[in-house]
Model the fold of this input.
Amino acid sequence: MPQRRVITGRSQEPRQRFAEELRILRTGSGASLRQLGERLGWDWSLFGKMEKGETLGGPEVVQALDQHYGTPGLLLALWEVAAGDQRQFREQYRRYMALEAEAVSLWHFAVSVLPGLLQTPGYARELLTAGGMVEPELTQQVEARMGRREVLEGKGVPRFRTILSEAVLRTALLNAGEWRGQLEHLLEMADRPSITVHVLPFTAGPHGLDSTDVWFLRLSDGRTVTYTENAHRGELIEGSAAVERLQGAYDAVRDLALSPAESRKFVLRMLEEVPCEPST
Done:
């Protein structure tokens, strides 16, 4: 097959292409970043970061740019492609991400951190920072993680069940305000009819998943695949025998976990223990 001919000379990578188009439109209009910020009512530094590819911005600012430049829908379409580009995630997640988008149900067990689908931006940022990530990749990965939450939004969403080891809720963020916001967000998500949250207390004792974060994705064709991960690597497991063994371990852990109602009370107790921020 002949190599695709590049006509424009612009990047074929969605995120970089979006940034290039923003720069071209602004410079073509003769406006500086500061002037653009004044005209649209946003901090001009945001537009600078968007043009460098450090952040995608939100749909509201992109729609305002479309209106400003007279490009109805063009920038928003480029933004949507960039936001959905799986290359912004690390290599080991790519296959998993494609399957997650097809799943009709998601089961999960967490050893030490909340699943990305339930994380707030503040939680994700502190977690990724602790792992050594720095800008601009840090902001890119936080945005990518927040984009994943769309899996649980809208109609026809997959059912999602997570079992959280008590260690997850005992490992608070350094920022008490962010930690309070994360626990409140967890409670709000647990109230949704499509989401079930269990807590596995320390008193449950040893179990078969004590060192393994695991996801089970049930696909539309009836297959179930498993993804296990730790801080350093992830592994997608599609063999039926191996998946069956992990499902057996998951079922045993689920039997040990608190009911959804008792789990909610547990999270509320954790929330009550968060120090109140000093009044000013």
About this structure: Residues 240-256 form the longest helix (17 residues).
